[in-house]
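From the shared-data thread, chain only:
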Amino acid sequence: MTAVLDTLREALGTECVRTGADIPRKNFGDASGARMRAPLALVFPRSTEEVSRCLEICHAHGQRIVTQGGMTGLAGGANPQESEVALSLERLVGVEEIDHDSATLTALASTPLAVIQSAAEEAGFLCGIDLGARGTCTIGGNVATWQQMRTAIRSCVMG
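Structure, as tokens:
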């Protein structure tokens, strides 16, 4: 397991890879109340290119990964399982583009929903979702949870 960690540190820099006591307790589990455990390592990429590089390295080493964002989810999807690397997207914040012609907004995964709502409103658009946690929930988590809900609904309907 040290080979994958050494390769991650070499590719992303030591400041982007934490292990042991350097991993904050908040990354042991989300708000679901499920069993908390420390990940093998916590990786903080600074760009989508670094996310891609991290995934490439972990795949080459057969290393399992769990993606983490705001850690506010109630579905347990951000909880590390034994020996998993946690991929924190918390540095990926911001609205990258608003395209008026196609009426789309492109944002990074850890951008809070409230920021997206404000950017959309300033551009003359309305963001189609709203949650009480708009100030803390992230768009990446919103999308991931929606996908989980769609799958669960489909399985209930199709039986």
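The beta strands are 17-18, 41-43, 65-68, 85-88, 95-99, 104-107.
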